[in-house]
């Protein structure tokens, strides 16, 4: 799966959303998350993020390694809605994202 990491926090450029053919990039209050069971690894989202917050799981920089679990765990309650457009804004970010310091 592809993974969104900390660069998205409080930025939410959303260019990635328009590229995803399966609509598996979901919005939380502070960042967006890729649903690991719905992503088909097409890679279309990765080059369009202006802050390079998206990477394939095996290519995550070490400082972003925790975001593989974060992108998965945030869907624990939501399950697999099968499309972000119909799901709307998620009620909460992953706890680690909610607690993250605001970027300068
Ligand atoms: Fe975030 Fe980059 Fe998408 S900032 S919303 S991952 S284009
Ligand atoms: Fe969508 Fe990016 Fe996966 S465009 S299918 S989230 S690689």
TrEMBL record:
Leader sequence residues: none
Origin: domain of life: Bacteria
Record-level Gene Ontology MF annotations: 3 iron, 4 sulfur cluster binding; 4 iron, 4 sulfur cluster binding; electron transfer activity; metal ion binding
Ranges where the 4Fe-4S ferredoxin-type domain occurs: 30-59
PANTHER family, sorted: FERREDOXIN, OXIDOREDUCTASE
Protein's job: Ferredoxins are iron-sulfur proteins that transfer electrons in a wide variety of metabolic reactions.
Protein name: Ferredoxin
